[in-house]
Amino acid sequence: MGVTKTEVFTTEQNRIADLAKAFAHPARVAILQYLVATKACVCGDLVDVLPLSQATVSQHLKELSRIGIIKGNVQPPRVCYCINEPVWEEARATFGDLLASFTQNTCC
Amino acid sequence: MGVTKTEVFTTEQNRIADLAKAFAHPARVAILQYLVATKACVCGDLVDVLPLSQATVSQHLKELSRIGIIKGNVQPPRVCYCINEPVWEEARATFGDLLASFTQNTCC
DNA sequence: ATTAATCATCGCAATATTGCGATTAACCAA
DNA sequence: TTGGTTAATCGCAATATTGCGATGATTAAT
């Protein structure tokens, strides 16, 4: 019904899914790549860089903030965003472990 | 409008987003974890393992197949699935590189 | 106080996703 | 041929996501 049955999965599985959502849209990938490249807090630039409206960019930033992989600090009238290092590290460790956990199929 | 503007992003960004979608739902995470753990082709077991209906599981398997991260080989009346190693390796390299590309913020 | 700049939020529309029951298709065995 | 088994697909319903224009809120500057 368009509603994910989160309660029947483990906390870990739900967290992995949430972290993956940060990368599951090209606009969010572009945002994260830009923040990684600048290595610093970015203010209004993102709207100029992305081929999307200000409202849409703001929404993607909100979603990334919800996941925690970026953080915004208010410097009115600007809000500056940058990579939130602990969560980025969490993602690195999580996907690193998960993707390293497969070695080789014993069948086909 | 619920429709991602894929054409305004790079092929790489779209591919990253697609690979991330494989992990962006707890049911698909559970499926992949199970296939990794068994290291082999799994036939009907998945429906028994997951707390979802056969139709729903089949749909997630279809999505994972579309992305290419799993492959199914038909052994009627069964269809057996396993990790598709080249694409799994692609994901490992892609997210490995991407997540390693961030070092440290020079600001906050 | 007024204006300009910046960003969040609202409201809307359209498409996508998730989920399941029921059906269909394909195949094997008896 | 007739069942039985398995999995894909159909059809439907409900929620989620994506996108944008317009509006609002906030603050600095004039």
From TrEMBL, chains A, B:
Keyword Transmembrane helix in record: no
Bilayer-crossing regions: none
Keyword Transcription: yes
Domain HTH arsR-type span(s) in chain numbering: 8-106
Pfam family of the protein (one): HTH_20
UniProt entry keywords in alphabetical sequence: DNA-binding, Transcription, Transcription regulation
UniProt-recorded name of the protein: ArsR family transcriptional regulator
Domain of life where this protein originates: Bacteria
Any GO MF annotation of the entry: DNA binding
InterPro entries noted in UniProt: ArsR-like_HTH, HTH_ArsR_DNA-bd_dom, HTH_MetalResp_TranReg, WH-like_DNA-bd_sf, WH_DNA-bd_sf
Source organism (scientific name): Spirosoma sordidisoli
